[in-house]
């Protein structure tokens, strides 16, 4: 449960414009879709995917670090790491199992003879969209455990796109369709409160000192 008094205390430190911006952005946030990236060798690509998630309203990004344990490129992410939840996993199995337990179907974004074209994709089901490495694509484990496959229609000679470009195209397309649908895709009231608290903390300098003062004065 969220401590509403504590949330109000922190939000009173913020400007009205900041608080209004939080509410406006949260109106367009969703967990109906989530994104997963697998062992991305060039970390700036993961950072760019994170930025696309933030811009188009995807709240969670799942990062599998089975082989490369690289950190987010903050310059590329341009602050997106403050507003998007990053879930890290040390194995493909752990990531897939976790997302399936949350009710997501696993969708592999990879050229495949049984692929569904982007415009034909069924957006009604909560989906975890997996993107693979630049060099090898998605692993065999993800392909075997996927509930479906998704591809971007292409009409040129080039058969693939950079992962960050592919993710941006797919995320924009699917979230736009979602917002124009009658699907209940919004965050719950509890999820919104959780994000308001987290974002308030991310926006306040010297938050640790302020937290210590608040709890020393208010917790008995």
TrEMBL record:
GO biological process, one term: methylation
Catalytic EC class: transferase
Record carries keyword tRNA processing: yes
Domain tRNA/rRNA methyltransferase SpoU type: 33-171
Cross-referenced Gene3D superfamilies: 3.40.1280.10
Keywords, in A-Z order: Methyltransferase, RNA-binding, S-adenosyl-L-methionine, Transferase, tRNA processing, tRNA-binding
UniProt cross-references to Pfam families, sorted A to Z: SpoU_methylase
The enzyme's E.C. designation: 2.1.1.34
InterPro entries: Alpha/beta_knot_MTases, SpoU_MeTrfase, TrmH, tRNA_m1G_MTases_N
Family designation: Belongs to the class IV-like SAM-binding methyltransferase superfamily. RNA methyltransferase TrmH family.
HAMAP family: tRNA_methyltr_TrmH
Protein name: tRNA (guanosine(18)-2'-O)-methyltransferase
Organism: Flavobacterium xylosi
């Amino acid at each position: 449960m969220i401590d509403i008094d504590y949330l109000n205390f922190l939000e009173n430190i913020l400007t009205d414009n900041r608080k209004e911006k939080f509410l406006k952005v949260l109106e367009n946030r969703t967990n109906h879709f989530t994104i997963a990236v697998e062992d991305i060798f060039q970390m700036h690509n993961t950072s760019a995917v994170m930025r696309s998630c933030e811009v188009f309203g995807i709240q969670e990004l799942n990062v599998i670090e089975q082989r490369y344990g690289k950190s987010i490129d903050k310059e590329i992410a341009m602050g997106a790491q403050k507003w998007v939840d990053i879930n890290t996993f040390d194995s493909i199995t752990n990531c897939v199992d976790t997302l399936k337990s949350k009710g997501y179907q696993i969708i592999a974004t990879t050229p495949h003879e049984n692929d569904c074209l982007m415009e034909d994709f069924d957006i009604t089901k909560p989906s975890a969209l997996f993107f693979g490495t630049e060099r090898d694509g998605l692993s065999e484990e993800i392909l075997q455990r996927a509930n479906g496959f998704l591809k971007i229609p292409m009409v040129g000679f080039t058969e693939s796109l950079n992962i960050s470009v592919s993710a941006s195209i797919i995320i924009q397309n699917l979230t736009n369709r979602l917002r124009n649908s009658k699907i209940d895709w919004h965050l719950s009231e509890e999820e919104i409160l959780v994000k308001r608290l987290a974002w308030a903390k991310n926006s306040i300098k010297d938050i640790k000192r302020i937290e210590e003062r608040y709890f020393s004065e208010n917790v008995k």
